[in-house]
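User: tokens in, sequence out, please.
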């Protein structure tokens, strides 16, 4: 079966034709979102791109969208990336143009679904997934079911408060996991310490990124190592809480920050093992997502598989 997966972002829309049997993306394309053109125009451009890619040869469409999603009705209730899309009927509008089933889900939820159907969560019934990018998103599957809460907007794992006296988060609270472990937070931590550590190699380049900071931690740059340790501690506290609450078989971590690799994952695994209650030891694995740049498209395609299973 062929499914269209749409990774809807504020800047770009990534579209893929996915063969669900092999788990491979047969074709993919990317277009600029151009939010300023208005919702109906954006949907028309997405529909045109889907038809150009697939020639109409697909079963259904899955869309992973940022924001608060009414998945039953295919409506974007609110999304910070699409400020004018209040109660926007994304699913119904696309259905009119394609005459195919359209399923919509929050992008963090689609990430955990992608891992369940195509990634490190394949064959698992209890999964926690975190994506560490500009922000921190999360999704949870328990007993093979996606947990979304009363209004479909639950499992905001990035906004679990790690330290109530911590830095201000974009959500308005203080000390959320996102305020410590997102790429945005990692860069902020470096910039805040520039006066105290002016000789750090972090400041030798014009552009400071989470990747460059972790690369310098591998070279034992003092400030880079301090930041890495703070990220690990925050993640370990958050993940330990998720283990105690959800009792997952696997915790899968993706997004750009996850690509730091062993320098992040080795101390993280060690610290979580120190923090978890004895009864939870050896009940879980912490794994880096294998889906990498295809996570968005495969996650979106997985929305269809989950809804129709």
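Assistant: Sequence out:
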């Amino acid at each position: 079966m062929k499914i269209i997966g749409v990774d809807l972002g504020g800047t770009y829309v990534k579209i893929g034709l996915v063969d669900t049997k092999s788990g491979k993306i047969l074709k993919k394309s990317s277009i600029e979102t151009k939010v300023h053109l208005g919702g109906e125009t954006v949907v028309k451009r997405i529909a045109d791109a889907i038809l150009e890619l697939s020639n109409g040869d697909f079963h259904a469409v899955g869309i992973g969208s940022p924001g608060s999603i009414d998945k039953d009705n295919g409506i974007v209730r609110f999304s910070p990336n699409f400020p004018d899309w209040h109660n926007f009927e994304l699913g119904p509008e696309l259905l009119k143009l394609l005459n195919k089933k359209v399923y919509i889900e929050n992008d963090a939820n689609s990430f955990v679904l992608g891992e369940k159907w195509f990634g490190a969560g394949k064959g698992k019934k209890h999964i926690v997934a975190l994506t560490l990018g500009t922000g921190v998103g999360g999704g949870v599957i328990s007993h093979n079911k996606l947990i979304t809460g009363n209004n479909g907007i639950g499992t905001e794992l990035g906004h679990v408060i790690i330290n109530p006296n911590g830095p201000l988060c974009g959500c308005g609270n203080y000390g959320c996991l996102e305020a410590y472990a997102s790429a945005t937070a990692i860069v902020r931590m470096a910039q805040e310490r520039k006066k105290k550590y002016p000789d750090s190699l972090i400041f030798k380049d014009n552009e400071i990124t989470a990747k460059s900071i972790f690369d310098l931690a591998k070279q034992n740059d003092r400030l880079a190592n301090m930041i890495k340790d703070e990220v690990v501690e925050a993640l370990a506290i958050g993940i330990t809480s998720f283990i105690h609450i959800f009792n997952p078989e696997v915790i899968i971590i993706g997004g750009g920050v996850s690509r730091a690799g062993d320098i992040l994952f080795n101390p993280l695994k060690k610290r979580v093992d120190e923090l978890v209650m004895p009864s939870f030891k050896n009940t879980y694995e912490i794994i880096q997502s294998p889906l990498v740049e295809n996570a968005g498209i495969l996650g979106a395609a997985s929305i269809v598989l989950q809804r129709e299973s």
